[in-house]
Amino acid sequence: MYNKEHLKMQLAEMGLKPTDAVMIHSSIKAMGPVEGGADTILDALMEYFAEGLLMMPTHTWAQMSDTYNVFDPATEKSCVGTLSDLFRLRPGVVRSLHPTHSIAAYGPEAQNYVAGEENITTPCAPEGCWGRLAKAGAKILLLGVAHNRNTFVHSVEELCQVPERLTDKPVTFQIKMPDGHLKPVEMYRHYNPYTNDISQYYVKLTEAFYETGAAKKAALGDAVCILCDADKVAEVTAKVLRHNSNCFLECEEIPAEWYL
Predict the structure, then answer these.
(1) Rounded distance, CA 131 to CA 158, Å?
(2) Measured distance CA(4)–CA(190) in Å, rounded
(3) Can you list the alpha helix ranges (DSSP code H) found in 14-93?
(4) 30-62 pLDDT, tens per residue?
C-alpha cells in the first residue's frame, strides 16, 4: 500500500524537480493500492509541484458536438480519466477555455499559462497550451498509459502541418466566459479519412523516443510510466514526419535511420 510520501519519493527518483512543469496523462487503476486513493495521489502531486506547474488534460471532445456546443469550464466533465476530472475541481486549479482540448493547471504560473485558449481554433495549436509545452521545458508523464494518450504529438503534427488531420470546416462552439457571457468560436476538429483515432498509432514512436533520450521508463505506485521531455519529443517527431508525414498509418515500424 502506497502513501503520499512514497509517491513523492518516486517522483524525486524519476528526476522530476518540484519546480518543473509537468503534464500528466494517467490511469489510476495502474497505480495499484494507494492509501486514500485518488485524493492522496492528487495531494502528493500538488504538494510536490507546488512551486512548479502541474497540468492534466481535461478534454471534452467526446461530448462536444454540433448540437451539444456550449462549453462551461466550471461544470463540463473531463472525458479522459477520473484523476483529471477530480483535479480540475481542486482549490487553486485553473482550467483553460478550449472547448474540446482544455487542460487544468496548478502552480504560480498556471493562470498565465492557460490564458487565451478561448481564441484557439484547432485542437492542439502550436501557440496554445499543448504547443507551448516544449517552450516551457515541460515534462510529460504517461502514468500507466502509453503514447496513444500523448496529446502533445497532435500538436507536433499541427506544427508540421501534416495533411488530413483536421476537418475541412469548423464547428461553432460557445464558451462560457468568467463573466458569464457566451463567446462563439469557430473550431476545427480532429479528422482523418482512414481512421477515427490517429493517436492509436503514436505508439510506433516508442522506441524512437527511448533511443534518442526523449523518454525514459519510470514508475509511480505500481504503474509503469514513461517520462518524456516535451522539447525532445517534438524534435524527434518532427524529424520522423519530415521523412514521411503519413508514416503513422503507412509504416509498420519507424525506421531507426529516420531519427538516429
Answers:
(1) 9
(2) 38
(3) 37-48, 82-87
(4) 999 999 999 999 999 999 999 999 999 999 999
pLDDT at position 23, please? 99
Report phi then psi at 126, rounded to 5: -55, -30
Are 165 and 190 within 8 A, CB to CB?
yes
Q: What is the C-alpha to C-alpha distance for residues 171 and 73, in angstroms, rounded to an integer?
A: 18
Q: Rounded to the nearest 5°, which phi and psi values hold at 253? A: -135, 155
> 104 has which bridge partners?
56, 95
Q: CA neighbours within 13 Å on the CB side: how many for 46?
A: 21
Can you state the angle between helices 152-159 and 230-243, rounded to 10 degrees?
A: 50
Q: Are 178 and 187 in contact (CB under 8 A)?
A: no
List the one residue out of 178, 157, 177 whose CA is nearest residue 166. 157
pLDDT in tens, 186-241: 999 999 999 999 999 999 999 999 999 999 999 999 999 999 999 999 999 999 99
**Residue 182 forms beta bridges with which residues?**
176
Measure the CA–CA gap between 176 and 168, rounded to whole angstroms.
25
Note the pTM of the prediction, 2 decimals. Answer: 0.97
What torsion, rounded to 10 degrees, do the Cα atoms 246, 249, 250, 256 define?
A: 80
DSSP string across 219-249: EETTEEEEEEEHHHHHHHHHHHHHH-TTHHH
Amino acid at 218: A
